[in-house]
Design brief:
275 residues, alpha/beta, Rossmann fold, 2 domains, five-stranded parallel sheet, two-stranded antiparallel ribbon, 7 strands, 13% strand, globular, disordered N terminus, disordered C terminus
Length: 275
Protein backbone atom coordinates (compact mmCIF):
# COMPACT_ATOMS: atom_id res chain seq x y z
CA UNK A 1 0.00 0.00 0.00
CA UNK A 2 1.52 3.39 -0.94
CA UNK A 3 2.68 5.57 1.90
CA UNK A 4 0.43 8.36 3.00
CA UNK A 5 0.66 11.28 0.60
CA UNK A 6 2.48 9.29 -2.12
CA UNK A 7 -0.62 8.59 -4.23
CA UNK A 8 -3.09 11.03 -5.71
CA UNK A 9 -6.55 10.67 -4.29
CA UNK A 10 -9.28 10.24 -6.90
CA UNK A 11 -12.70 11.64 -5.94
CA UNK A 12 -15.55 9.14 -6.04
CA UNK A 13 -17.42 9.02 -9.34
CA UNK A 14 -20.85 10.58 -9.41
CA UNK A 15 -22.92 7.75 -10.89
CA UNK A 16 -25.83 10.13 -11.54
CA UNK A 17 -23.60 12.03 -13.98
CA UNK A 18 -22.83 9.00 -16.16
CA UNK A 19 -25.82 9.46 -18.53
CA UNK A 20 -24.87 13.09 -19.11
CA UNK A 21 -21.22 12.19 -19.71
CA UNK A 22 -22.29 9.51 -22.16
CA UNK A 23 -24.52 12.01 -23.97
CA UNK A 24 -21.62 14.44 -24.32
CA UNK A 25 -19.37 11.70 -25.69
CA UNK A 26 -22.13 10.71 -28.10
CA UNK A 27 -22.41 14.31 -29.34
CA UNK A 28 -18.71 14.27 -30.23
CA UNK A 29 -19.31 11.36 -32.59
CA UNK A 30 -22.65 12.30 -34.13
CA UNK A 31 -24.29 15.67 -34.90
CA UNK A 32 -26.71 16.90 -32.19
CA UNK A 33 -30.37 16.29 -32.88
CA UNK A 34 -33.73 17.61 -31.74
CA UNK A 35 -35.09 15.71 -28.75
CA UNK A 36 -38.61 15.92 -30.21
CA UNK A 37 -38.22 15.01 -33.89
CA UNK A 38 -34.59 13.78 -34.11
CA UNK A 39 -33.70 16.15 -36.95
CA UNK A 40 -30.19 17.59 -36.90
CA UNK A 41 -29.71 20.90 -35.07
CA UNK A 42 -26.79 23.29 -35.22
CA UNK A 43 -23.88 22.43 -32.94
CA UNK A 44 -23.89 24.50 -29.78
CA UNK A 45 -27.63 25.17 -29.96
CA UNK A 46 -30.31 23.81 -27.65
CA UNK A 47 -31.41 20.28 -28.63
CA UNK A 48 -34.79 21.36 -30.01
CA UNK A 49 -35.34 22.56 -33.56
CA UNK A 50 -37.14 25.79 -34.47
CA UNK A 51 -40.18 24.09 -36.09
CA UNK A 52 -40.77 21.92 -33.00
CA UNK A 53 -40.36 24.93 -30.72
CA UNK A 54 -42.89 26.97 -32.65
CA UNK A 55 -45.37 24.07 -32.60
CA UNK A 56 -45.41 23.93 -28.80
CA UNK A 57 -48.96 24.31 -27.43
CA UNK A 58 -49.56 27.56 -25.56
CA UNK A 59 -51.99 28.39 -22.79
CA UNK A 60 -54.59 30.67 -24.33
CA UNK A 61 -57.61 32.56 -22.92
CA UNK A 62 -60.04 32.20 -21.36
CA UNK A 63 -58.22 31.40 -18.15
CA UNK A 64 -58.26 32.36 -14.49
CA UNK A 65 -56.54 35.71 -13.94
CA UNK A 66 -54.99 34.48 -10.72
CA UNK A 67 -53.81 30.89 -11.19
CA UNK A 68 -53.83 30.64 -14.97
CA UNK A 69 -56.11 27.61 -15.08
CA UNK A 70 -57.78 27.21 -18.46
CA UNK A 71 -61.55 27.83 -18.38
CA UNK A 72 -64.36 26.91 -20.70
CA UNK A 73 -65.86 30.40 -20.45
CA UNK A 74 -64.39 33.82 -19.58
CA UNK A 75 -63.82 34.49 -15.88
CA UNK A 76 -64.85 37.91 -14.60
CA UNK A 77 -63.62 37.56 -11.02
CA UNK A 78 -59.94 37.45 -10.08
CA UNK A 79 -59.81 33.85 -8.87
CA UNK A 80 -61.54 30.50 -9.19
CA UNK A 81 -62.16 27.22 -7.40
CA UNK A 82 -58.65 25.99 -8.27
CA UNK A 83 -56.95 28.81 -6.34
CA UNK A 84 -59.54 29.66 -3.68
CA UNK A 85 -57.42 28.13 -0.90
CA UNK A 86 -54.18 29.88 -1.87
CA UNK A 87 -52.67 32.14 0.82
CA UNK A 88 -52.13 35.84 0.12
CA UNK A 89 -54.38 37.52 -2.40
CA UNK A 90 -51.31 38.81 -4.21
CA UNK A 91 -50.17 35.30 -5.13
CA UNK A 92 -50.47 34.59 -8.85
CA UNK A 93 -49.04 32.12 -11.33
CA UNK A 94 -48.42 32.23 -15.06
CA UNK A 95 -47.25 29.36 -17.26
CA UNK A 96 -46.26 29.23 -20.89
CA UNK A 97 -47.48 25.79 -22.04
CA UNK A 98 -49.99 23.16 -20.97
CA UNK A 99 -48.24 20.09 -19.58
CA UNK A 100 -49.01 17.80 -22.49
CA UNK A 101 -47.58 16.70 -25.82
CA UNK A 102 -44.19 18.15 -26.81
CA UNK A 103 -44.14 20.61 -23.90
CA UNK A 104 -44.39 17.75 -21.41
CA UNK A 105 -41.67 15.94 -23.35
CA UNK A 106 -39.32 18.92 -23.02
CA UNK A 107 -39.93 19.07 -19.26
CA UNK A 108 -39.15 15.36 -18.92
CA UNK A 109 -36.04 15.57 -21.10
CA UNK A 110 -34.71 18.44 -18.99
CA UNK A 111 -35.70 17.01 -15.65
CA UNK A 112 -35.01 13.30 -16.00
CA UNK A 113 -32.80 12.80 -19.06
CA UNK A 114 -30.25 15.48 -18.22
CA UNK A 115 -30.73 17.67 -21.30
CA UNK A 116 -29.81 20.77 -19.32
CA UNK A 117 -29.22 22.83 -22.50
CA UNK A 118 -33.01 22.87 -22.91
CA UNK A 119 -33.23 25.20 -19.91
CA UNK A 120 -31.86 28.09 -21.97
CA UNK A 121 -34.76 28.47 -24.47
CA UNK A 122 -37.30 27.29 -21.89
CA UNK A 123 -36.14 29.88 -19.35
CA UNK A 124 -35.89 32.72 -21.85
CA UNK A 125 -39.43 31.98 -23.01
CA UNK A 126 -40.66 32.82 -19.51
CA UNK A 127 -39.75 36.47 -20.04
CA UNK A 128 -43.23 37.61 -21.13
CA UNK A 129 -45.13 35.77 -18.34
CA UNK A 130 -42.61 37.11 -15.81
CA UNK A 131 -43.03 40.66 -17.08
CA UNK A 132 -46.81 40.27 -16.89
CA UNK A 133 -46.61 39.29 -13.22
CA UNK A 134 -44.20 42.13 -12.44
CA UNK A 135 -46.42 44.65 -14.22
CA UNK A 136 -49.50 43.47 -12.33
CA UNK A 137 -47.55 43.86 -9.08
CA UNK A 138 -46.48 47.37 -10.09
CA UNK A 139 -42.71 46.69 -10.04
CA UNK A 140 -40.06 46.80 -12.82
CA UNK A 141 -39.19 43.29 -14.01
CA UNK A 142 -35.44 43.91 -13.70
CA UNK A 143 -35.82 44.79 -10.01
CA UNK A 144 -37.55 41.52 -9.10
CA UNK A 145 -35.52 38.84 -7.35
CA UNK A 146 -35.88 35.49 -9.14
CA UNK A 147 -36.10 32.61 -6.66
CA UNK A 148 -35.97 29.05 -8.00
CA UNK A 149 -38.22 26.57 -6.22
CA UNK A 150 -35.76 24.24 -4.46
CA UNK A 151 -35.66 20.46 -4.57
CA UNK A 152 -34.48 18.23 -1.73
CA UNK A 153 -30.70 17.76 -1.28
CA UNK A 154 -31.12 14.05 -2.09
CA UNK A 155 -32.91 14.82 -5.36
CA UNK A 156 -30.28 17.37 -6.28
CA UNK A 157 -27.49 14.84 -5.69
CA UNK A 158 -29.37 12.31 -7.79
CA UNK A 159 -29.88 14.65 -10.76
CA UNK A 160 -26.82 16.81 -10.36
CA UNK A 161 -28.85 20.02 -10.80
CA UNK A 162 -32.07 21.81 -9.91
CA UNK A 163 -34.05 22.39 -13.09
CA UNK A 164 -35.78 25.43 -11.57
CA UNK A 165 -32.39 27.08 -10.97
CA UNK A 166 -31.38 26.47 -14.59
CA UNK A 167 -34.61 28.07 -15.81
CA UNK A 168 -34.15 31.00 -13.42
CA UNK A 169 -30.60 31.58 -14.68
CA UNK A 170 -31.81 31.73 -18.29
CA UNK A 171 -34.71 34.02 -17.33
CA UNK A 172 -32.36 36.32 -15.43
CA UNK A 173 -30.34 36.89 -18.60
CA UNK A 174 -33.51 37.78 -20.50
CA UNK A 175 -34.77 40.20 -17.83
CA UNK A 176 -31.43 41.42 -16.48
CA UNK A 177 -32.70 40.38 -13.05
CA UNK A 178 -30.85 38.67 -10.22
CA UNK A 179 -31.28 35.06 -9.11
CA UNK A 180 -31.17 34.38 -5.38
CA UNK A 181 -31.69 31.01 -3.72
CA UNK A 182 -33.73 32.27 -0.79
CA UNK A 183 -35.38 28.94 -0.07
CA UNK A 184 -34.30 25.49 1.04
CA UNK A 185 -36.41 22.37 0.90
CA UNK A 186 -36.67 20.18 3.96
CA UNK A 187 -36.59 16.40 3.78
CA UNK A 188 -39.33 15.20 1.47
CA UNK A 189 -42.67 14.52 3.09
CA UNK A 190 -45.36 12.31 1.61
CA UNK A 191 -45.30 12.21 -2.20
CA UNK A 192 -47.62 14.75 -3.84
CA UNK A 193 -48.26 12.67 -6.95
CA UNK A 194 -51.55 11.01 -5.98
CA UNK A 195 -52.88 13.68 -3.59
CA UNK A 196 -55.85 15.91 -4.36
CA UNK A 197 -55.68 19.71 -4.16
CA UNK A 198 -56.40 20.30 -0.45
CA UNK A 199 -54.19 17.38 0.60
CA UNK A 200 -51.35 18.72 -1.54
CA UNK A 201 -51.58 22.13 0.09
CA UNK A 202 -51.56 20.69 3.61
CA UNK A 203 -48.68 18.35 2.74
CA UNK A 204 -46.56 21.13 1.24
CA UNK A 205 -46.91 23.58 4.13
CA UNK A 206 -43.81 23.50 6.29
CA UNK A 207 -41.73 21.87 3.54
CA UNK A 208 -39.63 25.01 2.96
CA UNK A 209 -37.49 27.40 4.96
CA UNK A 210 -35.44 30.46 4.11
CA UNK A 211 -31.81 29.69 3.34
CA UNK A 212 -29.23 30.25 6.03
CA UNK A 213 -27.76 33.71 5.53
CA UNK A 214 -30.00 34.50 2.55
CA UNK A 215 -30.71 38.22 2.32
CA UNK A 216 -28.92 39.05 5.56
CA UNK A 217 -28.87 42.76 4.77
CA UNK A 218 -32.04 44.48 5.87
CA UNK A 219 -32.01 46.50 2.62
CA UNK A 220 -32.89 43.23 0.85
CA UNK A 221 -36.07 42.70 2.83
CA UNK A 222 -39.44 43.72 1.41
CA UNK A 223 -38.05 43.31 -2.11
CA UNK A 224 -40.39 41.77 -4.64
CA UNK A 225 -39.73 38.10 -5.29
CA UNK A 226 -40.79 35.99 -8.27
CA UNK A 227 -40.64 32.22 -7.92
CA UNK A 228 -39.51 30.11 -10.88
CA UNK A 229 -40.34 26.44 -11.48
CA UNK A 230 -40.67 23.99 -14.34
CA UNK A 231 -44.26 22.84 -13.71
CA UNK A 232 -47.26 24.01 -11.68
CA UNK A 233 -49.77 21.33 -10.73
CA UNK A 234 -52.17 22.44 -8.00
CA UNK A 235 -50.12 25.42 -6.84
CA UNK A 236 -49.57 23.80 -3.42
CA UNK A 237 -45.78 24.02 -3.68
CA UNK A 238 -45.98 27.63 -4.83
CA UNK A 239 -48.33 28.46 -1.96
CA UNK A 240 -45.96 26.93 0.58
CA UNK A 241 -43.02 28.88 -0.87
CA UNK A 242 -44.99 32.14 -0.91
CA UNK A 243 -46.04 31.66 2.72
CA UNK A 244 -42.45 30.99 3.82
CA UNK A 245 -41.09 34.04 2.00
CA UNK A 246 -43.83 36.36 3.25
CA UNK A 247 -43.27 35.27 6.84
CA UNK A 248 -39.56 36.04 6.43
CA UNK A 249 -40.28 39.61 5.29
CA UNK A 250 -40.18 39.34 1.50
CA UNK A 251 -42.87 40.34 -0.98
CA UNK A 252 -43.64 37.38 -3.24
CA UNK A 253 -45.57 38.49 -6.33
CA UNK A 254 -46.20 35.02 -7.75
CA UNK A 255 -44.66 32.16 -9.66
CA UNK A 256 -43.78 31.69 -13.32
CA UNK A 257 -43.38 28.22 -14.82
CA UNK A 258 -42.76 26.65 -18.20
CA UNK A 259 -45.75 24.29 -18.00
CA UNK A 260 -49.02 23.89 -16.14
CA UNK A 261 -50.97 20.73 -15.46
CA UNK A 262 -53.64 20.49 -18.13
CA UNK A 263 -57.25 20.41 -16.95
CA UNK A 264 -60.21 22.46 -18.11
CA UNK A 265 -63.30 23.04 -15.97
CA UNK A 266 -65.92 25.62 -15.19
CA UNK A 267 -65.25 28.15 -12.39
CA UNK A 268 -68.70 27.52 -10.95
CA UNK A 269 -68.00 23.86 -10.24
CA UNK A 270 -67.99 23.00 -6.54
CA UNK A 271 -65.98 19.84 -7.12
CA UNK A 272 -63.39 20.95 -9.64
CA UNK A 273 -60.86 18.23 -10.42
CA UNK A 274 -57.33 18.54 -9.06
CA UNK A 275 -54.91 20.44 -11.31
Amino acid sequence: MPASGSARLVPPMNLAALPRLAARAYDLLLPPSCVLCSCTVEAGMAPVCAPCWHRLPRILPPRCHRCGATRLTPVESDGCAACAAWPLESMRTEALCPMRGPAARLVRELKYAGWTALAVPMGRALSNPAQNLARRAGVPADEVLLVPVPITPARRRERGFNQARLLADALSNALDARVTELLERRTARRSQVHLRRQARLANALGSFRTSVGAGRGEHERRRSVLLVDDVVTTGATAAACVTTLAEAGWQPIGLVSFARAWRTFEPSSDSAPPM
